[in-house]
Specification:
about 70 residues, alpha+beta, 2 strands
């Protein structure tokens, strides 16, 4: 098992929003990020109605770059 380190996971600057910083002990930065994201985000498959609604509101489809798609082992 890899050595655990303490990482700071923080929100990116957003106009008018305070920066939130959390200390997370993990063996890899992606594990720390996933730990924090699980508290705040959820992922589901978009339905056809979701696509029609969001695309109609101007929400663009984002594509993950290849290097972002690979998880650490």
């Amino acid at each position: 098992m890899a050595q655990a380190r303490v990482y700071i996971v923080s929100t990116k600057f957003s106009e008018g929003q305070p920066v939130v910083r959390r200390l997370v002990r993990a063996s890899h930065p992606s594990h720390a990020l996933r730990h924090v994201a699980a508290d705040q985000l959820q992922v589901t498959v978009a339905s056809q109605d979701d696509l029609i609604d969001l695309l109609g509101r101007g929400v663009a489809v984002e594509t993950v770059r290849h290097e972002q798609a690979e998880l650490p082992t």
